[in-house]
């Protein structure tokens, strides 16, 4: 029990901040949903949509300029900090990088940490040292919200307005107090940081001046954002004065930052909704204000930021490499996904949502009139249904865009093109059509970034996609019905709805039917790795020739099970045995061959499987190659230790071996003998005798494989076999097959099986004879096999997953005697060597262990 408590304490110690943040965000989400649902029920969505769609283009242009200006002003922080830290970066480069970082930061939330992370990654090469990057973030992150504190102080001077709000919504007082405290702490952050780090250096005056300057810049930035908000509000209400709008915006922004939710979504909106409702602004108008503010403060700058990213990527790498550490950026892109494709996938997702929202309700009245005069009602109805279909398909395919699949690029181009056409046909929705065409152009410019042939076929994900899509469509149809009910009050729409043009159920049925067809067709026609010429089976002649030239390892002999596939490097100097399982390529053991070429071969292998969307996992790798895997970006998990008996040091006549000598004498006295059969010496009678022992040992259990041998005549015939026989009857009571490492120095136990009724210490008698036999044959190492989870997670500061594994080792004896197995093997005085699971991404550890287990228990080829 104490072990469990220690593990829990360690978990909280290492992840306490993360867990607290998640709990806080969950609480905030519940509060916002609880407070917001009641208000949303009173909103007339049809009226809101109609209000937004009637805005003239010049006003939209003004909104866009103000939104871009507001986000651009965030770069002022960076100019000031970079000047202070003396980074050698061009101003144009600073702006281009920080503008993109700010647009991403705006939609991600987390109190500015996302933007800070991107800046750290891109500016790392220009920093004088690692401390400069820490200093950069220490100056930047606290400064982004400090301007709101100053705005809150100004708002308090208009107490007659703020007091009435606080009397009704007292919980806002907490947010105000928090930001007032924040304003005071802001000027002592450096001092607090030095105390926590036990650093005695004093804060210089220039740094204090910089803090004041950043305070002013933050105030300017938030005031520009407020200007955009105020201009939008003025389009809906002339009665609400400037002071009231200022107070509501400030309170809403503070709530948004404190919630840590992406873009302050929900928290900002709820405060603004409650504030304006209190002063008599209609809920439909407030909703329209919020939508427009989010579009022009978040979405439009994001689109421009994406374009800016593409322009940056099209520039000379040599020019940008002066300022940006491209080796780090490239590694980041390869291990996750490029920022460009992530943003593109967001755009494709947004395109799908845009089409669905466009089809959710009729367009502006005059446009519908024009469309209905030019086109027949069936065509209008069909265009609406196809718009819904394309919207759903764009949402579904956005993941493949993020994963850079070439096929998805072509399909998405056509979906965007036809989506724009149908958006125009169903009601001259030029806004949606223009947006889709812009996305299409951006996608076209990014063509070179799509390199993957496909992703692994995953029917579970496909089925989940269909289930979630069905649930989403039900909600969509219900929402469509509610909105159309509001539109029925408009006389012109009544006639169209009566004729069935906007009835949502047929559209939903057609859309879902086409989605099912698309998903099934898309999965079945994917390019598969199994059809690639480099996905090779076992060619025994080629493998044997290779093993004559190069040494193998403990697991090399398992190639001849033929349940795995082989990857040969282009120069045929390195061989990797692996098997694909769902989204993983599970490699058994280390590469074999010329060690000088391991790095090139691993890169080749990664590139090969990456073309099909697979990640690599290495199972039972050796300790000596961990630095090699680390250099290639892998993580490690200790699986256990393998026991290696050093045969030169094993002395059966020593005092330590007295018990062993007694066992040998007793078995010889009781009439048991040991015999060895070498490769290609198993006749039919011997095979049948061995099969009887194997079947009795299995007792109807399934054979395992992948990293374990199984009973198969062709496979056994390639192995040395040791048997224990009854001298009088000739009956075999136990046997073991040996797995060579193809270096004439090392041999490993593979299969070890015995009958139910055998004398005590039969296994020990068998192992002792094998050890003595191979010692006489001048072998150096006898591998007893692995003790799973042995010596895993015993260090006080071990990773949490290894601590959990240690608990399984210690207390899991009801399921498997982990501890007992190690104690038994320790009798032979082995040298213990760690074995590891090596995996590409931290999140892959659970799935890697599951897939390895699945492969070991798979029935494939076990005959």
Q: What does this protein look like?
A:
- This protein has 863 residues and is of the alpha+beta class.
- 61% of the residues lie in helices and 10% in strands.
- Among the domains are: 1-41; 643-791 and 819-839, Gcn5-related N-acetyltransferase (GNAT) (Aminopeptidase, 3-Layer(aba) Sandwich).
- Strands 1, 2, 3, 4, 5, 6, 7, 8, 9, 10, 11 and 12 form a 12-stranded mixed beta sheet that branches.
- It is elongated.
- It starts with a helix and ends in a 7-residue tail after the last helix.
In short:
The protein is α+β, with helices and mostly antiparallel strands. 61% of the residues lie in helices and 10% in strands.
The CATH homologous superfamily name of the domain at 643-791 and 819-839 equals Gcn5-related N-acetyltransferase (GNAT)
Write down the overall geometry. Answer: elongated
Rounded mean pLDDT is 75
CATH class of the domain at 643-791 and 819-839: Alpha Beta
Distance between the first and last residues' Cα: 45 Å
Number of strands: 12
Can you give the helix content as a percent range? 55-70%
Q: What fold name goes in the CATH topology slot of the domain at 643-791 and 819-839? A: Aminopeptidase
> What is the CATH-assigned architecture of the domain at 643-791 and 819-839?
3-Layer(aba) Sandwich
The main pleated sheet reads as: 12 strands, mixed
Strand content: 5-15%
Instruction: Briefly note the structural class of the backbone.
Output: alpha+beta
Radius of gyration: 34 Å
The helix count comes to 35
Low-confidence segments, given as residue ranges, are: 1-19, 27-46, 314-337, 363-378, 486-504, 806-817
